[in-house]
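In the design runs reported in the main text, the only information available to the sequence generator was the tokenized backbone. The following block is the verbatim input for one such run; it is reproduced so that readers can re-run the procedure and compare outputs position by position.
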């Protein structure tokens, strides 16, 4: 009975460890199946006096004149003073295999000196790729999450009122020319290139498909050929292999953001046995000026301010701490936390350990 329980426990732990590994779908992309960035320039109308100042934003005034001329309204010589129009940049992500007539979300951002886009309506705006090809047209009412209000003596702003979104605000007018129905092979691009991960991915695919159809070309690319006897086609093969789980490997790395004091350490970071002493130096300067006045019966004189400065230095008491050679990330974290230092002091300690050659990892400072 005990043996059966032990076998069941081992099976559960093995299954849990297998499911802890990421899927191929989560660590690699199929080459060619990608989003495309679109951008456009347009006008937002209907603002309640929170639009661009036409005297200060020449591009808004010129765009407004051009738009009105398309409706046979000539205002070239007029002194426009409306505050209900704002020039904006419209951005969107065109998903792969998007069909003509479907809709996507867009983000609208003010370009001039407008105060808020609340209540505005985006006029029909073409959205283009980097080559200038129009793939969608955007138009609609803008939803703004932030707001701004002000009075004579106070003002309040929450969020960013000059940026908003239009749900399903762009209509796709042109499809991307990418057809993979007749493809006989695909290329998987790893999001975090690594030799070991690429090899494990190829081995997992070969074991599933039953042949040498996958090969790791480099740390970033794994090629997969469609087996001749595979009846589901290229799409079915991708659907099957992207669910396979692979143990992703990673380099030992410590990433430090000195601006915020953030430290992120990878699983494989190790430290050799070192002794560390970290002390704090505190210097306090206090000013207590005193006023010296002449005597009560002095024939003449004036009050004089005499400075009094006191400087104290506290070097702090710090003992030499020992960090044993670690075999896991948890042991390393426990050893560093035992020093009782702040995150910013921890950054200095890690850099010093690296300089001493005891940190078996790469340090990257953002």
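Verbatim output:
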């Amino acid at each position: 009975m005990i043996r059966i329980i032990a076998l069941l426990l081992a099976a559960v732990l093995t299954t849990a460890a297998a499911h802890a590994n990421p899927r191929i779908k989560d660590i690699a992309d199929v080459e060619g199946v990608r989003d495309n960035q679109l951008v456009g320039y347009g006008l937002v109308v209907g603002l309640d006096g929170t639009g661009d100042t036409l005297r200060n934003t020449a591009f808004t005034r010129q765009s407004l004149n051009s738009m009105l001329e398309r409706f046979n309204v000539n205002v070239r010589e007029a002194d426009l003073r409306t505050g209900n129009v704002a020039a904006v940049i419209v951005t969107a992500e065109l998903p792969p295999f998007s069909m003509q007539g479907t809709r996507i979300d867009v983000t609208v951002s003010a370009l001039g000196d407008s105060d808020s886009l609340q209540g505005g309506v985006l006029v029909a705006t073409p959205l283009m790729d980097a080559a200038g090809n129009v793939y969608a047209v955007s138009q609609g009412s803008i939803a703004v999450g932030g707001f701004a209000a002000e009075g004579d003596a106070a003002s309040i702003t929450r969020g960013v009122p000059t940026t908003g979104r239009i749900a399903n605000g762009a209509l796709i007018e042109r499809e991307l020319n990418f057809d993979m129905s007749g493809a006989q092979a695909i290329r998987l691009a790893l999001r975090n290139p690594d030799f070991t991960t690429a090899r494990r991915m190829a081995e997992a695919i070969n074991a599933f498909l039953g042949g040498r159809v996958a090969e790791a070309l480099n740390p970033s690319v794994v090629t997969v050929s469609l087996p001749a006897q595979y009846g589901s086609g290229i799409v079915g093969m991708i659907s099957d292999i992207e669910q396979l789980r692979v143990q992703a490997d990673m380099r030992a790395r410590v990433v430090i953001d000195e601006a915020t004091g953030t430290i992120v350490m990878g699983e494989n970071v190790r430290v050799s046995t070192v002794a560390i002493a970290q002390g704090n130096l505190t210097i306090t300067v206090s000013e207590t000026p005193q006023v010296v006045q002449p005597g009560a019966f002095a024939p003449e004189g004036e009050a004089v301010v005499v400075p009094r400065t006191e400087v104290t230095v506290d070097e702090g008491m710090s003992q030499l701490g020992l960090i044993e050679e670690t075999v896991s990330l948890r042991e390393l974290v426990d050893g560093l936390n035992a020093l009782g230092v702040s995150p910013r002091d921890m950054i200095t300690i890690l850099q010093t350990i690296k300089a001493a050659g005891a940190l078996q990892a790469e340090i990257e400072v953002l």
